[in-house]
Amino acid sequence: MTKKEILKRIEKENIQFIKLCFVDILGRLKAFAITRRELEHALEEGMGFDGSSVEGFARIYESDLRLLPDLETFNVLPIAFDGTKTAMMFGDIITPEGKNYEGDTRYILKKNLEEMNKAGFDRFMVGPELEYFYFSSSDKPQILDEGGYFDSVPVDEANDLRRETILVLEEMGISVEYSHHEAAPSQHEIDLRYDDALKMADKVILYKLVVKQIAAKRNIYASFMPKPINGFNGSGMHVHQSLFSKGKNMFFDGKDENYLSKTAKAYSAGILKHVREICAVTNQWVNSYKRLVPGYEAPVYIAWARRNRSALVRIPQSIVGYEKSTRIEARFPDPGANPYLAFSVMLKAGLEGIKKGYELPKSVEADIYEMNEIERKAKSINTLPGSLLEAVEEFSKSRIMREALGEHVFSKFIENKKIEWDNYRITVTDYELKRYLSFL
């Protein structure tokens, strides 16, 4: 939409408030509202805010920043969302000098997409599958149902919640592919139809907001925490991805037995080779590593396969040999990640594989969980980091992560994650009290 069209719609639909949105370094949505009287000024010059109060942003003496709305992100929240009609826009964060702010993670993704363009590709297509839980409150993970994978009513008591959520998303122009009950009790999934990475990252933020808001209207808490319940599967964010050039899917090769091009194989090899370096971003919380353990469907072992869902990277086979649908599926990220950074680091690792011609190792179609350590070593199958600390150590040594995120975000991210680990390390948990208090 043009500025004129946006202003006309605001007037026609009598929309009084516009939320200007961005995310902090951790991917948490931040927003401030302006009146429609201020919108024309905001579209021309942006709106100022204090960056020193935002996690991972500016220091106090360089705190003046502006949010310049991106016209392409204009959206109207349906009345069903919260009872009012409010517009929303994401934007670019600008310094007083008029430059893009290096701490803006949306800008980080834009820069990595520019690098992709230089490498000869014009579209990075992604399709995330975000899993989440419904609980009766945010105080403790009390489940609403005992349903399992693809279960339907009456076992799936949240079916109406998902339906209402999808209707709101569709009204906002966010296309939903399908939804269903997931494997764990009270666990659900709504999959978004694939789109360009920047648009999809915006959609992921809005998707999480809508899921939570629709649940809250019914006094239910929706959680994207990676592993909220002990003994059950955690929640992942499997990311389907492919590269296009001039309308052609560069991951497709009709002559290959797996229909994968050399580009797709090198890209996948890049993900596999650098995955331990990027885990701190795609799995950024202490709790993320409670999900990445054997036995709960989450990938732990660094390998790829065509059909094997215990592998870290999988090649979906829904329509064999169909060019547009040829893609890889990265199964390790979780929905607690900042989507702008998660898409950036996976793209960077994949492009590194293409640039340097990485060779994709042999696929592993056997169930890796059933292998013993000797069998895994024989197939050169390494593992993901076992903790946030280990992931941050790998991340901090990575040249390509420093290049992908830029010095500011790279340093701030490490600083934040080390603080989180230290806070976790000094906290006495219920496990320790139950395990040790009675006999030590």
Instruction: Give the CATH class of the largest domain.
Output: Alpha Beta
Question: What is the string of SSEs from the N terminus onward?
Answer: HEEHEEEHEHEHEEEHEEEHHEEEHHEHHH
What is the first-to-last residue Cα distance? 67 Å
Largest sheet: 11 strands, mixed
Could you say how many structural domains there are in total? 2
Q: What structural category characterises the helix and strand content?
A: alpha+beta
Low-confidence stretches: none
- Percent range for β-strand residues: 15-25%
Average of the residue pLDDT scores: 89
DSSP E strands, number: 17
Q: CATH homologous superfamily name of the largest domain?
A: Glutamine synthetase/guanido kinase, catalytic domain
Q: Using the 3D structure, state the CATH architecture of the largest domain.
A: 2-Layer Sandwich
Helix content: 25-40%
Give the CA-based shape. globular
What is the CATH topology assignment of the largest domain?
Creatine Kinase, Chain A, domain 2
> In DSSP terms, counting alpha (H) and pi (I) runs of 4 or more, how many helices?
13
Rg over CA atoms, rounded to whole Å, is 22 Å
Describe this structure as you would to a colleague:
- The chain is of the alpha+beta class and 440 residues long.
- The protein folds into two domains: 3-100, Roll (Ubiquitin-like (UB roll)); 110-431, Glutamine synthetase/guanido kinase, catalytic domain (Creatine Kinase, Chain A, domain 2, 2-Layer Sandwich).
- It is built from 13 helices and 17 strands.
- The strands form two sheets. Strands 7, 8, 9, 10, 11, 12, 13, 14, 15, 16 and 17 form an eleven-stranded mixed β-sheet that branches. Strands 1, 2, 3, 4, 5 and 6 form a six-stranded mixed β-sheet that branches.
- Helix 4 (105-118) packs parallel to helix 9 (339-356), helix 7 (262-282) crosses helix 11 (388-396) and helix 11 (388-396) runs antiparallel to helix 12.
- The chain is globular, with a radius of gyration of 22 Å.
- The termini are far apart.
